[in-house]
Specification:
By secondary structure, the protein is an all-alpha fold. The chain is about 85% helix and about 0% strand. It contains 7 helices and no strands. The chain has helices at about 1-15, 20-40, 45-90, 95-100, 100-150, 160-200, 215-220. It starts with a helix and ends in a 7-residue tail after the last helix.
């Protein structure tokens, strides 16, 4: 069951990270260039945008990403337990039927599934909070920047300045929206990579627990016809 979970879930999370790799190195350049051009339009109001990003949105996003990572660990742990219990029940079905253990195994599997669903609801809730933050970040940055430009600099927000700044802020929208996704996928991939590494680094089975082809060939024939 653990091997099936590693193949189906953990490998998929590692695969989901790769589309974001190019965005990971290009997003900082896009953000820096956009802020430089915004400086030409809004001057010191740009620092408000940087402050909102660095001191408000990034910490909140990081907090949500840590919560998602912690819940994901618990989800994968209980999922391994459920799959293991289901595999044991299927492989030992004759014995379970013989001794009348159906109710006990059903209760064990259902309890694991209920706990998994509870954790999945928490996981989805944190993902929704994260996506809400990612969607709100460009809007909040735009409002704060224009408000600072008008209030603190007594600037005139004419059409040329407004539309040029909006264009640059819209360019910022994609990397600002993708960076939290990259962070989230990186957290999930780190958990999955750790689980796969622990599996590959685990000790081999003892020779007494299995029969290899070599050991079979060494055993003398029990019956000859």
């Amino acid at each position: 069951g653990e091997i099936v979970n590693l193949m189906s879930a953990d490998c998929q999370r590692l695969q989901n990270l790769f589309p974001y790799l190019h965005v990971a190195w290009s997003a900082p350049y896009v953000i820096i260039l956009s802020l430089i051009f915004l400086w030409a339009q809004l001057k010191y109001a740009v620092f408000v945008a940087v402050g909102v990003i660095l001191f408000v949105m990034v910490p909140l996003t990081n907090f949500v990403a840590q919560k998602i990572k912690a819940v994901q660990k618990e989800v994968m742990k209980i999922k391994d337990e459920r799959i293991r219990s289901t595999g044991e029940a299927i492989s030992s079905m004759k014995v379970i039927k013989l001794y009348g253990w159906e109710a006990a195994f059903r209760e064990k599997i259902c309890d694991a599934r209920d706990e998994e669903l509870k954790l999945l609801r928490t996981y989805v809730l944190w993902r929704a909070v994260g996506r809400t933050l990612w969607t709100a970040t460009p809007i909040v940055v735009t409002l704060c920047t224009f408000a600072a430009f008008i209030v603190f600099q007594n600037g005139t927000l004419d059409a040329a300045t407004a539309f040029t700044s909006l264009t640059l802020l819209n360019i910022l929208r994609f990397p600002l929206a993708m960076l939290p996704n990259i962070l989230n996928s990186s957290m999930e991939a780190a958990v999955s990579l750790r689980r796969i590494s622990l599996f590959f680094e685990s000790n081999e089975l003892h020779k007494e627990s299995y029969i290899s082809d070599a050991s079979v060939s060494e055993v003398e024939t029990a019956v000859k016809v």
